[in-house]
Design brief:
It is a single chain. The protein is built from seven helices and six strands. It is α/β, with parallel strands linked by helices and about 230 residues long. The termini are far apart. Helix 1 crosses helix 2. It has a six-stranded mixed β-sheet, covered by helices on one side.
């Protein structure tokens, strides 16, 4: 009888933990997704690191063996270093090391209130991390807003860039034919519209996930936007 009571107690504890985990996932699905993604990255061999630049902590990821050519990749507006993960296997065939870094204010980097978040200042922050890591010249890639940042860096510091890689980059002066206010969605419908703009085949976002994305977007004053995997 004592053994049965012990088993029932263990089962009750495990059941309670499952219920609490389920409630947590329902309330904060983005946080659960992020932690599972970070775990997968660690298991895949990617190294999560950080360095101080101009008094602020900047997070970056490194993958590949040391000693060879280095490529540094810069994400877009509302993005983060992890956005490059699907490109990693292809880059691994061309370079020895690639670094995906989070700009100040994004991803796991510090979010200082005294930083301007302008393209020129973000470009200088990239130069700062290159200096901190002792990288004199690299292949530099940027996507969307990150493309504008790396172009600015290449113009200001051409000696630091061996090759410039642009992915759907900003930099061409052309007024968008869609409502730019979608970059700061406030409703699930606006979030769906933004997904349709940013993705070829957008997947439906469950209602409880959309609510959590909008909560984070409001908390971060619009800095956490776009597909829910980026937040």
């Amino acid at each position: 009888m004592k053994a049965v009571r012990g088993l029932l107690w263990v089962a009750g504890v495990l059941g309670s933990l499952v219920v609490l985990a389920g409630i947590g996932f329902w309330q904060r699905p983005v946080s659960y997704f992020n932690e599972s993604m970070y775990l997968r990255e660690g298991l895949s061999g990617a190294s999560s690191r950080s360095v101080e630049v101009a008094g602020h902590r900047v997070h970056y990821m490194v993958e590949g063996p040391a000693g060879g050519p280095v490529v540094v990749l810069i994400h877009g507006l509302g993005g983060r270093a992890e956005d490059w993960r699907n490109l990693a296997p292809y880059l691994g065939q061309q370079v020895s090391v690639f670094i995906c870094r989070n700009l100040p204010g994004y991803g796991r980097s510090e979010k200082p209130s005294d930083f301007s978040y302008s393209v020129p200042d973000e470009a200088e922050a990239v130069v700062g991390i290159l200096d901190a890591l002792g990288l004199k010249q690299i292949d530099l890639g940027g996507w969307s807003m990150g493309g504008g940042i790396v172009q600015h860096l290449a113009i200001r510091h051409p000696e630091r860039v061996r090759r410039l890689i642009l992915f759907d980059s900003v930099g061409i002066y052309e007024k968008p034919d869609w409502d730019t206010r979608l970059f700061t969605p406030t409703t699930p419908a606006e979030l769906d519209q933004l997904e349709a703009l940013l993705m070829t085949n957008p997947q439906p976002i469950p209602g409880f996930v959309a609510r959590d994305i909008l909560r984070i977007s409001k908390r971060n004053a619009g800095w956490c936007i776009g597909p829910w995997r980026r937040c």
